Amino acid sequence: GNSVTQMEGPVTLSEEAFLTINCTYTATGYPSLFWYVQYPGEGLQLLLKATKADDKGSNKGFEATYRKETTSFHLEKGSVQVSDSAVYFCALSKLYNQGGKLIFGQGTELSVKP
Amino acid sequence: GAGVSQTPSNKVTEKGKYVELRCDPISGHTALYWYRQSLGQGPEFLIYFQGTGAADDSGLPNDRFFAVRPEGSVSTLKIQRTERGDSAVYLCASSLKPTSWSSWTEETEAFFGQGTRLTVV
Fold first, then answer.
1. What pLDDT is recorded for position B1?
2. Quick one: average pLDDT of B93-106?
3. Which residues of B touch A73 (CB under 8 A)?
4. Peptide bond preceding A31: is omega within 30 degrees of 0, i.e. cis?
5. Residue B95 has pLDDT above 80, yes or no
6. CB under 8 Å to A35, separation ≥6 — which residues?
7. Interval A31-61: pLDDT, tens
8. Distance, in angstroms, between B68 CA and closest chain A CA?
9. Which residues face B68 on adjacent strands?
10. Chain B nearest C-alpha distance from A74 (Å)
11. Chain center to CA of A63
12. Side-chain half-sphere exposure of A111, counting CA atoms within 13 A
C-alpha cells in the first residue's frame, strides 16, 4: 500500500545551519507529494508541494524535489531560523479516485537554537 | 469563518462514554476530511465527505466511529463506547473543490483546523 517514511527527530540545529529532512515514499502510480508544517499551537499548514517527477516545490526558503527514481522528496533549507522550529510532515496524495486524502509520515520535530 | 474551526479544543471523557466532535469548515468548501493523530505520529485518514455524502470512509477503525455532514457544511464525528486507545488529536480539514481526477490544484488544497484533543480515562 501507499506509505511515507521520514527521518526520525528531534532534529536540533543552530541558527543559520543547513537543514535536510529525509522523506521516502511507496506508492503505485504517480502521487502528488507535500510537506506540511505544524508550528507550536497551530494547525497543519501546507509548506510546499510537487505534483510530478522532477518538480521542485519551494516556499519560505524551503525546497524539495520530487525524485521518482529514488522515491524521495527530501526537505532542505540553506539557513534555518529560530522561527522555523516546528514539526514537519511529509505526505502524499493520490487525487485520482481518492478525493485528495493525504497519507502522512510520522513527522520530524525541528528545534533551532539561537 | 476565516479558517476551519473545531470544537471542543479539548475533551476528556470516561471509558465507555459517547462523544461528538464538531468541525466547521471554511465557508464554501465542499470537501471535508477527518484525520486522527496519535502522539508522535502523523495524521491518519478517517473519512472524506463530498458535500453531504461520505465518499470514502475506509479509514474509520471500526463501527464505533461514525461521521455525518447533513447539510454539506458542519460535520460531526461520533465515537461510541470510547476506549482508552481512542485518545488522540482529531483533525478536520476542508478544501474548496471535491475530488479531482487531474493533478493537484489550489482548489483542492486542504486547510486544517487545530484539532480536538480527546482523552479517554
1. 52
2. 68
3. none
4. no
5. yes
6. A23, A46, A47, A48, A49, A57, A62, A64, A73, A75, A88, A89, A90, A91
7. 889 999 999 888 899 999 998 899 999 999 9
8. 17
9. B76
10. 17
11. 9
12. 6
**Partner residue opposite A49 with nearest CB, options B50, B102, B104:** B104
* Partners of residue B89 in chain A, C-beta under 8 Å: none
Interchain contact A33–B (C-beta under 8 A): no
Phi, psi angle pair for A82, to nearest 5°: -55, -35
Amino acid at position B58, single letter:
S
Q: Coil, strand, or helix at residue B69?
A: coil
Query: Containing H/E element for B71?
Result: none
Of B42, B45, B95, the CB nearest to A89: B42
Q: Cα–chain-centroid distance for residue A104?
A: 9
Please report where in the chains the cell 447539510 appears, as a residue. Answer: B71
Interatomic CA distance for residues B118 and A72, integer angstroms: 34
The SS3 assignment for A79 reads coil
For B106, list phi and psi in degrees, rounded to 5. -60, -30
Q: What's the CA gap between B37 and A91, in Å, rounded?
A: 14
Cα distance between residue A101 and residue B45, in whole Å: 7
- A92-107 pLDDT, tens per residue? 987 555 556 889 999 9
d(CA A23, CA A108): 10
A102 in B contact zone (CB under 8 Å): yes
